[in-house]
Amino acid sequence: MDQTLLVISNLPDAQSAETLARALVEQGLAACVNILPAVRSVYRWQGAIEDATEVTLFIKTAAHRYPELETAVRRLHPYEVPELIALPITAGLPAYLQWVIGETRKDVDV
Predict the structure, then answer these.
(1) Which CATH architecture does the domain made up of 4-103 adopt?
(2) Which residues contact 21 (CB under 8 A, 6 or more apart)?
């Protein structure tokens, strides 16, 4: 079975998060995207400490689709440098993990 990934990204608001999530699922690049409620992020950007409210996405995908997913996020994300972190899923309900792989096959009708 192909490796499954949990990909995390933050967006500035609910509308941009929903737009990106829907596009990834519609294009077959993600099987499922969870849109979490607002989180507070504190980070350094261009030499200044920033404090922002963001919306987090948990994106479930197959490792072989990650390059295309990254391309889509870079194209659709409103940030100059979007957060995009991919974590391997090392264990999980086999039926769920197989579903993720099945939904992100390139030959699935989207």
Answers:
(1) 2-Layer Sandwich (3.30)
(2) 30, 33, 35, 57, 59
